[in-house]
């Protein structure tokens, strides 16, 4: 299929020329994209993704499958109940999805769209499709950095052709964002799980046999104190954390390891505990401030317990330096705050500011690169504020390595390595760390970097954090480009609508010209009748004894004949109008009756009878009445044209009904010469005609009009003779499901 002018790998069937472009709520798409990008908790992310995909896609059921190693597992199932989407996290039973389609998507990493699964395709033999009687199916891969993360499967078994290309465009945009967010959430969940596992291991009850080994090798400081609050023992980790040798602490108050502002509070609280048993702080996992030997204050987490040894009360504590944890939490806060609440230029400014603060760098910027030679910054943070954006040549700069897809790290001496880079000189930069921004096919589309006037150490944590920032920046850049392409497509569609309206108007004018003689005859009949009745009325009034009842009856006939002529003229004038399309509630049966009345004279000239089969209580539709009149007139005139040269009496039948898919179905059946099977689809191509004076535009315009109303127009051969044209339109009660 083709999306916004870009060829997208997608296996589909049932697409036809003239697919309409539907209006998209870009604000809603942006909000949903932000919601997905800002969600780091996996359960919440899955719930948001499933609800969004089902609601935006118009599906009635959906599955989310993750690739865990080599195994594909169902993570969630979403279904429609009433007007709500219900998401279940229990794994769906095997056989409740078409395995051939899912395996195809896993193997090819391409999406699959079946407009009508009942039609013959390479998946027709799938047991699920046959048993479920599936109609509309969409299966999308979730891919990030050319890696398959999972599968999003949607289906709607109420109607075919549900997944229009505009819906698919939105779902692809959301799937791309979801793949990034899912991978980040899985990574975050793994980190949390590892942290929880480590904590559980540290806090496990230690046996006496292994106590000494654990204490000696522990990365946490282990300290014991007596009931006077004096240090009795410290392990090797205590020196690494606090800077004191064991001999420097033994016999000293435990408050030596605290800032002076906390010492009196601790000592008073400890004395109160010894006297009353009341604790002034929680003894398990409490965060406090410690002080190193050099006077530096830092965050720590303590857990204390009380033992009786040789009849004496001994207090054993485990002290953990959580400086790195706090920095990671602060970095994560910067990541979320800086990338989850804004879009556009504000997004990139927020990103570089929080990126610099999270990594404690003086400068940070994000750039875009389209040709591999030139780069342009999207946002630039310089110390304590935003700098002006700039463009630069990539050659002979530290960015050159990054924009070839590699991580670039220059710990120090940066200006000496790149003496021709004037920007580095202006910034007095001495160190650099940069990462590429990649699109779905691993093509470099830009990069992010931090700079400083002091050395930058690129540990694994810093690089992982920058990778997440780069991933979010790349996703936002792709979202902006996709939004621009969608906006351009909508503008193009508006131009196409105007052109279609112009062609439709010319088609109506041309058709009415062909009907001029017939319409003149139709109008002349009531006018002649009115003239005769007027003379009769005058004669009854001019007698010596005027016959008023007879005169009144003749006058009534005059009024009726004039009204009939006026109605015919009004219908003709409406078809000549050149108004902008206007949607309103339309009774399709009224439109049928109007066109029969207008074309009955044309049909009678060729001995053709027009017969109607109108379904009672037909629901209304939201449509442009004038455009539906034109479609029906084109189809009925085609039928008359096909029968007018036949030697036998002919009949044109117009039928309306409410079909099993909840749509209004209109059929126009003739008994004419028919259409060869190989030309059944060609007749809807522009400029294809079998008439000597035909333009070949009537049927293409009619199909475009019907598809712009979210309907379908097609033709089939009759069993005996002639052709039947069918078109469907969503009923007013079903419009929300068809949208």
From TrEMBL:
Keywords, comma-separated and alphabetical: ATP-binding, Coiled coil, Kinase, Nucleotide-binding, Phosphoprotein, Transferase, Two-component regulatory system
EC number: 2.7.13.3
Coiled coil: 472-506
Pfam name, any one: HisKA
Domain spans labelled PAC: 284-334
GO molecular function, one term: phosphorelay sensor kinase activity
Catalytic activity line of the entry: ATP + protein L-histidine = ADP + protein N-phospho-L-histidine
Histidine kinase domain: residues covered: 518-733
An individual GO BP term: regulation of DNA-templated transcription
The organism's place on the tree of life at top rank: Bacteria
Residue ranges of every copy of the PAS domain listed in the record: 207-277
This protein's name: histidine kinase
